[in-house]
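Students often ask what a holo structure prediction actually looks like on paper. The answer is less mysterious than it sounds. You provide the chain, you provide the ligand, and the output is a string of discrete structure tokens encoding the 3D arrangement of the protein together with uridine-diphosphate-N-acetylglucosamine.
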Amino acid sequence: MGGLGVIILAAGQGKRMRSATPKVLHLLGGKPLLSHVLDACAGLDPDRVLVVVGHGVDRIREACPGVDPACWVMQREQLGTGHAARCAADALGDFSGDVLILNGDVPLVAGRTLSRMLAAHRSAGRDLTLAVAALADPSGYGRVLRGPGGDIVGVVEERDASDAERAVREINVGLYLASAGFLRAALAALDNRNDQGEYYLPDIAAYGAGREARIGSVTIDDPREFRGVNGREELAWMEKALQKDVNRKWMERGVTLKDPDSTYIDAGVTIGEDTVIGPNSHLLGKTVVGARCRIDGSAYLTNARLADGVHLRFSVVMDDCDLEDGVSVGPFAHLRPGTVLERDVHIGNFVEVKNSSVGEGTKASHLSYIGDTDLGRESNIGAGTITCNYDGFAKHRTTIGDRVQVGSDTQLVAPVAVGDDAYIGAGSTITKDVPAGALALSRAPQRHVDGWVDGYRARKRKA
Ligand code: UD1
Ligand code: CA
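The corresponding structure tokens follow.
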């Protein structure tokens, strides 16, 4: 038994996507289509992996930084899937094992399906194994043609098919296993006499059938696994199918999803047991949610790290933040990159925090902006407090100590520091450092004009 080579075809532009982005870079579950295919193959532990690229090659390489640079094979002109496979077969040199070829736009094929295909191919000692599926509506796919004995005799693309061939409901999934020797010979023999004038990879089946090669098939039943993404509608269908799988997995692991249909969890996310997630929640990127958290609903979390027992009330947007145990946030709060909230911090409604650390037990309950700030423990930030961090040229930091009381409607003009245990009177504009334990007040003193109202009204009535 020889080794295994993998070829992924990803050089096409994906015209039907009508997109400036190469098709294989469109995201599914937050991950490019191509990465899904690469991950599915990784479990087979192949000796070589080659990815055929052409359209948007620079962007594709950039989006897949983990891929060994030696994997990329250039197909300068997109002359068809057969031509793409030939470019890669050339790069395989005199490799003599089996070669698995996958369409880069069939993203949800499972690793275990590939293993099953490999086992069937090897145990039957075949030259070629095709993955096939039976569809009620096969439109758009290549149809598998079989002879009277049921042997595969070829594949015909829909646009080249006769009416009778179109009626065939067995489709070519776009997943092929071939022995390297057979593949090289078959690819060398391809022609482009078809409606598109392209070299078609599925034509290797007809080549083999004509030479009595051993050809077989494996059937894939699950539509999620065999559907290709050609346009946006298929992409949305896949997204929905993936969402269902991912959500089911998290529910099995002890997470309550109140409305799985409106819960979106990216592939890179993890969630702890007994966490409850309300409707319209998006957990994206590398978000980590601990155990016993409550996310009430309408949350949009990207790369957020929530420890255990965190409570996000309705409508919270978060990007690149760290929240320790017992933190509560919202409703209607915005935590931007670089926010670190220590244990039991409370961030309330209409509060924005950016690039700031907030010490244990500190509260900012209403209507505040805390930017570029180091905030101590057990302090209270009054309603309407603003850190004025930007002078039109640079950002400056505000430092606030432990047990500080910042009165409502305070502005802290950075750079500025407030010492431990200080009090700031409501309505102050703080431009100078406040010593520890001091009261700082910057507002004008209040005065009263006794009896002023009677005189005022009398003057008005006369006029
Ligand atoms: C292909 C199959 C069809 C099958 C279907 C399954 C051919 C001719 N047809 O059709 O039988 O039912 O997939 O989804 O193969 N590519 C290149 N270089 C090229 C052309 C394409 O790398 O010159 C890549 C594309 O980027 C894509 C893959 O090959 O990832 C398939 O190409 P696509 O044009 O989508 O083929 P389909 O028409 O879907
Ligand atoms: Ca396709």
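The mean pLDDT is 97.
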